[in-house]
Design a protein that fits this description.
The complex is a heterodimer of chains A (about 775) and B (about 160). Chain A has about 775 residues and is of the alpha+beta class. Chain A contains 25 helices and 22 strands. Chain A is elongated, with a radius of gyration of 38 Å. Chain B is built from 3 helices and 10 strands, in the order αβββββαβββββα. Classes of the chains: A alpha+beta (about 775), B alpha+beta (about 160). At the A-B interface, helix 15, strand 21 and strand 22 of A face strand 4, strand 5, strand 7 and helix 3 of B.
């Protein structure tokens, strides 16, 4: 039976990318020197699950890389490796590489093998440098996980069964196993006698002395501990099983125990002629690994049956050794008790070297089993939501058509009909809001990229930055979110590069060496405000003005307000940076920021205090699907002016209008002269009146220019759902889209910047 | 023919055609392109549109341009009245499906047109005049002009979106 795994690829990639994001976030919070173990675990889990997934799907390159990474993380987790700045950098690079690899695999492109290999080498080097020996053992322990995922139990049982007869027949001292090691291996099990004396009878002293002889591995058996009520505090219920690789005689070991007044239940086996460990280890550890996920490893004594069995075995004679219950548990599972004596003898030999690797793996397994199921959310494609929005929009229109009909209705049931309609309207509004909210996401999706960026930039520029993020839960429409990322990136980069001074300069000014860049988001009315502020040097008004004058953007004698001066930095190609860095300073950027924000129907404002810092505030509509609009009438047509472009509306007095050659009609508006744009002329419709004083003027702005729009009448303000004209028709100059009014008719939404451009072309023509 | 229903064509060598009247002539379009037939309602004018594009309408939430075929064919302009009908058609373009409506004097019938009976349009003068005619077919003693709407409207709309 084959299953087409490709159907799961999409989910795997999606989850992996998400997991990488969380790994990156955890890495950034990782304190150098004193890492939080939970963070390391998080990081480890990500690497582990990506490894598992990519191995399953046959993405060997990814699996191999994550395996190396996992090895290093394992070292860190076990505390054998310090988290240094270099290591943290290495891990961040690994995140990048993994992301690129997964993306490449996803798009069926070639993986940049050289880059991966280089980084993999770096990681291996780091592991080797830190701690050569344990690293190697961990490597050995982890290795089989990638290779031997499939059928675990049968394979595991087989070697145990195969070796056990041999073990039984050769019996007494110990089986002679395949590969003899040069160092004799002793298996010692001991337990303090009935009366525990303490002092030099302390098992820890014994352990220390044994350890002095050679390599020691100790396992405690707490199976003998009775229930709390029966516990005698003067007794030691714990027994130990120790594997000792040391070139010593059995007597020397016995002497260690004899040195105390304590009486011991002691058994020693193995020795020079029976070097215990065997080459079947990897298999059994692989078994453990594969099993670990579901069963983890029952700790030596958690299974009373097994520990009971091993105690029996011990009583049979001194030649018997204790059995690592873990190995039995995984190899023989349920039949453990039945085959205890035979399997144990063999399994002991098989698994004696495994426990070290096994225990680390077991830990990994139990940790990986834990995460997943955090939030109860589902993935829905954007199209489905759009479809839902469309349908709801239609319902709203149908409902308002019904309402209009209801107004005219007369008769006995008319009132009841109208009250039902009112209820329908309420429910309708609720439904519409709910559907809108589905598209809303917290802004943390955008913010989450900045900690990494700030860290990298600060490092490169030799600055100390603290990035504060607040208001992360503020929600906004997904489409806005997608488009706000780049402008924000620019602003944050700018703050770090130009705003925050070098640590020395800051200290010299009496500020803390660490500069603070603060990102904040909040709702303001129907808008969302995103602020990027820093406590850096602030904008240098004089320099900006001087630069603008030298470039001829501003006349030599012009006097500008602070705001106007700050606005200059949004001019294309404007930069006051003394030298161009690879971070910023080329003068592209701020104009793009402003353009992007304007395209979203938003505004950007600057506040700055020299020496104290600057604050950039971006105000954006919550959604691109809905716009607040003012309906205006021109002849028989109705147009929507977005409220964000509207300044005010007024009735004109004839004396306010003058004709200027080359400019046409202008009106004086608070000391400014604004060109009058007759909407009926631009759109070629027949107006109710051509006389300016009979209609109304709507002062509106776009691209920083203001005009007076001449319309017949103002109708009302409302929120309108934006519909695309381009789907079935095409773009129209001066029109950003269309909407459907309450009566089901279509109304065009004005695009002020485009309209002003079109109007000035007409003037010029 | 760009997108006839292959099954229908192979099964009996015929296609179903919706016929409609425009002045004195009867025209036909592939029934599979017809989305909807609806009565004429007031449209919203589009600035700077070609004169035969009357404006746009709301068709269940999407904005659909409306083309007056009389004006497209340079026929005398007729008044829109109760029997004036909009046929909503869809065309396939590079940017996906596009819907648009055509204003006609009235819808007549749905007829089976055997492929064998379709006659090519006579060559007369410039090719431009006949490029949107797929062929002529006699139905009930009248001549039905089969229209290639992709060619007829698609080119118009394509020009619009590129010009902008």
């Amino acid at each position: 039976m084959t299953i087409d795994l490709t159907q799961f690829h999409g989910v795997f990639f999606e989850e992996s990318f998400e997991a990488l994001d969380s790994m990156e976030a955890a890495l950034l919070k990782l304190d150098v020197g004193a890492p939080d173990p939970e963070r390391i675990n998080t990081i480890f889990r990500v690497a582990h699950s990506i490894k598992g997934g990519s191995a399953t799907f046959g993405f060997t390159a990814v699996a191999s890389f994550t395996h190396t990474l996992e090895t290093m993380l394992d070292e860190m987790r076990a505390g054998r490796m310090n988290v240094t700045q270099a290591i943290s950098d290495l891990l961040l690079k690994s995140v990048d590489v993994m992301r690129d690899m997964l993306r490449a695999v996803q798009n069926h492109q070639a993986i940049d093998a050289q880059r991966v290999a280089d980084l993999q080498f770096d990681i291996e080097l780091a592991i080797a440098q830190k701690n050569a020996a344990p690293a190697a053992s961990a490597q050995a322990g982890v290795e089989p996980a990638a290779a031997a995922l499939p059928p675990a139990a049968p394979v595991a049982a087989a070697p145990a069964a195969a070796t056990s007869p041999a073990a039984v027949t050769v019996a007494a001292p110990e089986p002679a196993t395949t590969v003899p090691s040069m160092v004799p291996r002793w298996a010692i099990s001991f337990r303090p006698g009935k009366a525990f004396v303490g002092g030099d009878g302390d098992p820890l002293r014994v352990m220390r002395e044994l350890e002095a002889m050679g390599t020691l591995r100790a396992f405690a058996d707490v199976g003998g501990v009775p229930s709390l009520a029966e516990l005698d505090t003067a007794r030691c219920y714990v027994s130990w099983r120790v594997e000792l690789e040391a070139d010593v005689s059995e007597q020397a070991i016995r002497d260690v125990f004899a040195a105390s007044a304590q009486d011991w239940e002691l058994s020693i086996s193995g020795g020079p002629q029976s070097p215990g460990g065997s080459e079947t280890d990897p298999e059994s550890s692989a078994t453990d690994d594969a099993h670990g996920d579901s069963e983890s490893i029952p700790a030596v004594a958690e299974n009373p049956q097994l520990s009971g069995g091993s105690r029996e075995a011990r009583e049979e004679g001194p030649a018997q050794i204790e059995v690592p219950a873990a190995a039995v548990a995984s190899a023989a599972e349920t039949s453990a008790a039945a085959v205890a004596s035979t399997a144990e003898a063999g399994a002991a030999a098989v698994a004696s070297a495994a426990p070290m690797a096994t225990s680390t793996q077991a830990a990994a397994a139990t940790h990986t089993a834990a995460p997943t199921a955090d939030s109860s959310s589902i993935r829905v494609s954007v199209e489905k939501i759009d479809e839902l929005m469309n349908t709801v929009g239609e319902l709203v229109i149908t409902q308002s058509m019904l309402s209009q009909l209801g107004q005219k209705l007369e008769g006995p049931d008319a009132d009841r009909f109208r009250s039902s309609l009112a209820q329908l309207e309420r429910n309708m509004r609720g439904l519409q809001e709910s559907v809108m909210r589905v598209r809303m996401l917290p802004i943390s999706f955008v913010f989450s990229r900045f900690p990494r960026m700030a860290r990298d930039l600060a490092q490169r520029l030799g600055k100390q930055i603290e990035l504060k993020l607040t208001g992360q839960e503020t929600e906004l429409d997904k489409t806005v979110m997608e488009k706000i990322g780049d402008p924000l990136t620019h602003l944050v980069r700018n703050s770090i590069d130009h705003g925050i001074e070098s640590p020395e300069a800051r200290v010299a000014k009496g500020k803390p060496a660490v500069g603070v860049v603060h990102l904040d988001a909040c709702h303001r009315g129907g808008n969302i405000a995103v602020e990027v502020s820093d406590d850096g040097a602030g904008l240098d008004k004089d320099r900006i003005l001087a630069k603008a004058r030298s470039r001829g953007i501003v006349g030599q004698s012009d006097v500008l307000t602070d705001e106007q001066i700050y606005d200059l930095i949004f001019e294309p190609g404007f930069s006051t940076a003394e030298k161009t860095t690879d971070v910023s300073g080329r003068g592209v950027g701020m104009d793009v920021v402003r353009r992007n924000v304007h395209e979203l129907g938003g505004k950007i404002e600057i506040r700055s205090t020299p020496g104290k810092g600057s604050r950039f505030t971006i105000t954006l509509p919550l959604t691109l699907a809905i716009v607040d609009g003012q309906s205006v009438a021109v002849g028989s047509e109705t147009y929507i002016v977005p409220l964000v472009s509207m300044v005010e509306s007024m009735q004109l007095q004839p004396q306010q209008v003058s004709r200027l050659p080359g400019l046409g009609e202008v009106l004086s508006f608070r000391g400014e002269y604004l060109p009058i744009v007759r909407l009926h002329e631009v759109f070629s419709v027949e107006p109710r009146s051509r006389a300016l004083h009979e209609g109304l003027i709507v002062v509106a702005e776009g691209d920083g220019r203001r005009v007076g729009l001449f319309v017949d009448d103002l109708l009302g303000q409302q929120q309108v759902v934006i519909k695309s004209l381009e789907t079935n028709y095409g773009r129209i100059e001066g029109v950003s889209g269309a909407t459907i009014l309450g009566d089901g008719s279509v109304s065009l939404i004005l695009d002020l910047p485009g309209l002003i451009r079109a109007a000035s072309l007409r003037q010029a023509a | 023919m760009t997108q006839p229903n292959p099954d229908a064509k192979e099964a009996n060598g015929s296609q179903q055609v919706l016929t409609f009247v425009l002045g004195n002539e009867t025209y036909g379009v592939d029934i599979l392109r017809v989305q909807e037939i609806r009565g004429f309602t007031a449209v919203t004018k589009i600035p700077h549109a070609p004169s035969h594009v009357l404006g746009v309408l709301n068709l269940r939430g999407s904005i659909v341009p409306i083309v007056d075929l009389r004006m497209r064919f340079n026929l005398d302009r007729a008044d829109y009245n109760a029997v004036t009908v909009i046929i909503v058609l869809s065309i396939q373009s590079a940017s996906g499906r596009r819907d648009f409506g055509v204003v006609v004097d009235g819808v007549s019938d749905v007829v089976d047109v055997p492929q064998a009976e379709v006659r090519p349009a006579p060559e007369m003068g410039s090719a431009n005049a006949t490029e949107y005619i797929l062929g002529l077919v006699p139905v009930a003693e009248r001549m039905v002009v089969l229209l290639d709407i992709d060619c007829l409207i698609g080119n118009d709309l394509r020009g619009l979106s590129q010009a902008a």
